[in-house]
Amino acid sequence: MTFNIKKALLILLLALLTSCTKEISVDVPFQPTTIIYGNISNENSPVTISIQQSVPLNSSATHQPVNNALIHLHTKSNTGITSLETDDFSVSDGIYTSTSTINTIVGNYYWIEVILADGTIFKSKEEILKPVVPILSIEQSPIADDILVINFSDPANDTNYYKFNVGLYFNSQLVSSNSSQSNDVVFDGNQNASVELDLFKYQDEDEEDEFDIEFDEVRVSLNNINFSSYQFYLNQSLQIEATEGDESGDPSQLFASPPVNLLGNITNTSTNNIALGNFTVEATSTINE
What we know:
Elements: H1 2-19, E1 34-41, E2 48-53, E3 64-65, E4 70-76, E5 82-86, E6 89-92, E7 95-98, E8 109-115, E9 121-124, E10 127-128, E11 135-140, E12 147-152, E13 161-170, E14 173-183, E15 193-198, E16 217-225, H2 227-243, E17 263-268, E18 274-288
Parallel strand pairs: 1-18
Antiparallel strand pairs: 1-2, 2-3, 2-7, 4-5, 4-8, 6-7, 8-9, 8-10, 9-17, 11-12, 12-15, 13-14, 13-16, 16-18, 17-18
């Protein structure tokens, strides 16, 4: 008798649990976010700025271009004189390109103001165009074939922040790229400074063996940038490293660094909230081999 009562209670409990199971859909409100990204350099060329908006998770698109914004590029001399560099941009798919070449001056500050159709204004931080730090040479590391050594002379008595880019090309087509960041805390003022770059750091392990990549040209750039832009690119690298390569079921992901918001040097002037993206002022030195 006792057994039958226990059995009945068990059946009743299972029935209650089953009846309480209900599939629900989570309706997460979506608020589009404006993403602004661009740069200006010493290379005296048109300035290009991308303005996009984020899209819902269930969207088939990866972004929504913003084609009706106004952009003002400003400059300030080392004597404090401020002027409008240009507000004349052509636009295609959210990519704005200045209709004229911008002749930059080392020691001047540069920044942008972006005005959206609804009146929202974004302003980047005023960043100085620092002196060019020339690349002296590049060479393969004697320790590993996949490590590239970039040699340069670091200026003394100044804190410098660098972004290094390397691209591997075959028949003028890009086949692999990588970037890295460094400050000069260790080699400040060293005339024989160098950094090492892993050519295949972000190579997908499921793709061909990294050493099977065929290339006939290496293009390297050294960009002398400001601290806020350096921090943006450093966070970008951390974001890539936190997500690259590992299977979703890999237990090591439990200990991976959490994704970082790619907040840069652009601010919503009404809310003082930092926007996604960055406008970088960079002094660029390049070398091809």
